[in-house]
Amino acid sequence: MSSVQSTSPEIPPLLSEAAALGEASAQTLLEWVEQRLGSRAAIASSFGAEDMVLIDLARKHAPGVRVFTLDTGRLPPETYELIEVVRRRYGIEVETYFPERTQVEALESARGYFSFRQDLAARKECCAIRKVAPLRRALHGRAAWLTGLRREQSLNRTDVSVAELDSTHGGLLKLNPLAAWSRQQVWAYIQENGVPYNALHDRGYPSIGCAPCTRAVKPYEDERAGRWWWEAREHSECGLHPVR
């Protein structure tokens, strides 16, 4: 049975309000989120550079917003270290959602530990179990979720909206406050505000996911080139953010 829910009647008016802010600053959008949604909104964080900027901004402008992460069981140790830094520095609880044990056990027993390298369908199956299903549980009962998506990150993300209706994961509001930010803006904010970040960024990893599916990129490659690098570039999404 699908876990996708119908859209709540309150969501379309909220979407209209958020969309009316247009390309307002991330701070302005977060202040609106705090006023209108508070703890019913949450940041979905993989603790990359964008997510760290978003967490820092939210603590200043939307302190009621929750933070959650999807622990796939295969995150790099550097990501766990950063999560601990975030918990201590910002004094927040990071809500953690794991994949269902029985699904992971069945997948690994039947198809091995690296089935995601076999073909695109096998990779999407792994992502569906380890990421997409936990995300739906994480979003259950919330009115909105916030992401660190930026249009500049890849060809799949060039038309990311600041505010949109997420009908894929439960018919709620999806907000992308950094949609118009450049990579330079992200890192300027981190440096100017002393924001902690994942140590892998200093080793050539602009985008960080599960350890077996992430590598450093070359200077001429785009930011998502290190994700599932054995696949065609148009496939560089896991299902959390459907390709448009």
TrEMBL record:
List of residues binding [4Fe-4S] cluster: C126, C127, C210, C213
Involved pathway(s): Sulfur metabolism; hydrogen sulfide biosynthesis; sulfite from sulfate
Residue ranges annotated for the Phosphoadenosine phosphosulphate reductase domain, each copy included: 42-216
A GO molecular-function annotation: phosphoadenylyl-sulfate reductase (thioredoxin) activity
Free-text comment on the cofactor: Binds 1 [4Fe-4S] cluster per subunit.
Record InterPro entries: APS_reductase (IPR011798), PAPS/APS_Rdtase (IPR004511), PAPS_reduct_dom (IPR002500), Rossmann-like_a/b/a_fold (IPR014729)
Chief location bin: cytoplasm
Cofactor(s) needed: [4Fe-4S] cluster
Cellular component GO terms, alphabetical: cytoplasm
This enzyme's EC code(s): 1.8.4.10
Function recorded in the entry: Catalyzes the formation of sulfite from adenosine 5'-phosphosulfate (APS) using thioredoxin as an electron donor.
The protein's name in its UniProt record: Adenosine 5'-phosphosulfate reductase
Organism in which the protein naturally occurs: Myxococcus fulvus
Gene label: apr
